[in-house]
Amino acid sequence: MANASTLLRKENRFRRGKDQLTRVGVTAGGIFVLITLMLIFFYLLYVIVPIFSSVAVNPKQHLSLSVTSKTA
After folding, report:
1. Is 72's pLDDT higher than 70?
2. Cα separation of 57 and 52, whole Å?
3. What is the pTM of this model?
4. Rounded distance between C-alpha atoms, residue 72 and residue 69, angstroms
5. How far apart are CA 41 and CA 48, in angstroms?
6. Which sequence ranges are marked TM in the entry (predicted)?
7. Closest by alpha carbon to 13, among 2, 3, 21?
8. Distance between CA 54 and CA 59 in Å, rounded?
9. How far is CA 69 from the centre of its chain?
10. Is the model more confident about 42 or about 4?
11. Could you write out the DSSP letters of every residue in the chain?
12. What residue ranges do the domains of the chain occupy?
């Protein structure tokens, strides 16, 4: 009977270790999901904000064209 008790304690300690490791893994996974959602939100904000800003057009080069009109 003493052997069964010792075995149960070892299993219990092993199970506690697995539970703790699983808890840390699930918590880290949840945190990474939240961080990923925040990054997606900020990326979408980065892409959409220029739509609402005013437009400015600056000419880089002035071109002059001479057109001659030939009628047939």
Report:
1. no
2. 16
3. 0.59
4. 10
5. 11
6. 21-49
7. 21
8. 17
9. 59
10. 42
11. -HHHHHHHHHHHHHHHHHHHHHHHHHHHHHHHHHHHHHHHHHHHHHHHHHHHSPP----S------------
12. 1-51
Res 1: pLDDT: 46
The CA–CA distances, whole Å, from 32 to 11, 18, 21, 29, 59 equal 31, 21, 16, 5, 46
Structure tokens at 45: 């904000």
CB atoms within 10 A of CB 11: 10
Residue type, 57: V
Tokens found for residue 16 = 């506690």
For 19-68, the pLDDT digits (tens) are: 999 999 999 999 999 999 999 999 999 999 988 888 888 888 888 878 77
Structure tokens at 44: 């979408």
